[in-house]
């Protein structure tokens, strides 16, 4: 019987090429990969998992020993979805700073689509309904509006925040420290 007393349990699972593969929600799944020899621990939490005779480190980040074929999951972070754009912009309208929710906020194409503006993270910002309506089919300068921050691709931290339904800072911090220490970049964004 394995036992672990920990407030964190999720493990970031990297593919053999160090690309993102998945997040193991339960520590026993991540430890199972390690014990079966399918994955190697890159980073562990300070907590341990105990069985009657053995003690295992609690895996925080593991890397697969073989390449798992998978659809290119990182593509979801190249698309300017509401979740990606709002997460990057801290759920604030990029014209007036008003807070928006997933429900109340809108996505604004800085250069309107009708004017050839691309549907990419580098051209889409969070906007409240009022600002979006006011701007209409114009560029910010034509509308006399100013962006608080220019749009950009997501950082790794923002990608992780998009990925995790609930935010547990210690897991994210541990994962990011491991990625930085090893020089791993998650889902290197394609052209913005
Ligand atoms: Zn606004």
Describe this structure in words.
By secondary structure, the protein is α+β, with helices and mostly antiparallel strands. It folds into 2 domains: 11-72 and 164-181, no CATH class; 79-143, DNA Binding (I), subunit A (Orthogonal Bundle). It contains 6 helices and 6 strands. A 4-stranded mixed sheet has the order 2-1-4-3, with helices on both faces. Helix 2 crosses helix 5 (156-163). Bound molecules: zinc ion. Zinc ion binds at residues 93, 95-96, 98, 127-128, 130-131.
SS element count, helices: 6
Radius of gyration: 20 Å
Secondary-structure element sequence? Answer: EEHEEHEEHHHH
Shape, principal axes of CA atoms = elongated
Short description:
The protein contains six helices and six strands, in the order ββαββαββαααα.
Could you give the topology of this structure?
Blueprint: E1 11-14, E2 20-24, H1 27-35, E3 39-50, E4 55-64, H2 82-88, E5 106-109, E6 124-127, H3 129-135, H4 140-143, H5 156-163, H6 169-181
Parallel strand pairs: 1-4
Antiparallel strand pairs: 1-2, 3-4, 5-6
The structure holds zinc ion.
Based on the model shown, name its key terms:
four-stranded mixed sheet; alpha+beta; DNA Binding (I), subunit A; 25% helix; 192 residues; two-stranded antiparallel sheet; 2 domains; 6 helices; binds zinc ion
């Amino acid at each position: 019987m394995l036992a672990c007393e920990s407030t964190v349990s999720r493990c970031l699972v990297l593919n053999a090429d160090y690309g993102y593969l998945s997040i193991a929600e339960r520590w026993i799944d991540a430890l199972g990969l390690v014990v079966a020899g399918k994955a190697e621990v890159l980073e562990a939490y300070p907590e341990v998992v105990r069985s009657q005779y053995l003690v295992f480190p609690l895996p925080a980040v593991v890397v697969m020993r073989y390449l798992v074929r998978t659809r290119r999951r990182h593509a979801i972070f190249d698309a300017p979805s509401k979740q990606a754009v709002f997460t990057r912009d801290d759920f604030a309208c990029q014209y007036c700073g008003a807070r928006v929710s997933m429900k109340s906020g809108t996505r604004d194409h800085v250069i309107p689509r009708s004017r050839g503006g691309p549907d990419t993270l580098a051209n889409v910002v969070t906007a409240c309904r009022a600002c979006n309506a006011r701007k209409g089919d114009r560029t910010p300068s034509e509308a006399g509006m100013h962006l608080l921050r220019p749009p950009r691709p997501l950082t790794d931290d923002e990608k992780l925040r998009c990925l995790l339904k609930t935010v547990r800072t210690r897991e994210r911090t541990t994962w990011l420290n491991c990625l930085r220490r090893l020089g791993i970049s998650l889902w290197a964004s394609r052209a913005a």
